[in-house]
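::Encoded backbone::
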Amino acid sequence: MIGVFDSGLGGLTVASEIFRQLPGRRVVYFGDIARTPYGTKSRDLVRRYAQQDAEFLLSKGAKIIVVACNTVSAHGVEMLRQNFDIPIFEVVMPAVRRAASVTRGRVGVIGTRGTISSGIYERKMLQLSPQVRINSVACPLFVPLVEEGWIGHSETLSIAKEYLHPLRLARIDTLILGCTHYPFLRSVIRQAIGGQVKLVDPAQDTVAELVDYLAHNPGLDAAVRTPGQHEFYVSDRTEHFVEMAKEWLGTEVVVQAATAG
């Protein structure tokens, strides 16, 4: 199975892309709703949670892990790769590569406080395309707004406009949605930032890299094609998660409560 973990329901955007780009592969998902958001936690605590989340997915038979959380991608991926002898994918570098390929030179990044304060996007872009200018803004309320189902509220649009105002002033042409929760707010973000700005969804490009990896590793690809149903686990089962999973994935899924750690 392909393991996916996130601090909550944001990783459903990655699971959805796996369903679309890699049909026939089984997914085991863990959403750590009880401890969300990760973006406000210390680096050491994020790493501890990431270790526990990965161990949980391995216990369920995951052969690959996709870290769908940008905060963990910023703070804990190298630790996970040292601790676990399986392929581990993250969502930062695929988004950086995509943004570098489409921008005219001004890229914005929005994310949690933890992701933005890490400077991970600036460092990766500097390595890849040093001529690209990066402007980053933390949007700490976006994750709880998504988790609480406030996507369509007028207050959410007002908050988005306030957060994104500095990026409008910077005249960015490309915006990285630096948290897998943020695609749920795509229409709101589009209204707030303007229609000419290209939006980069890390889920799409991360799974595209996974597709390429499996094409070059047919034995592993066969291992994640095992028969059976997808498995979805959360550390706090809520009706909102169940509803969003059905809406975002386009199918009914069984969501079970479980604890990592």
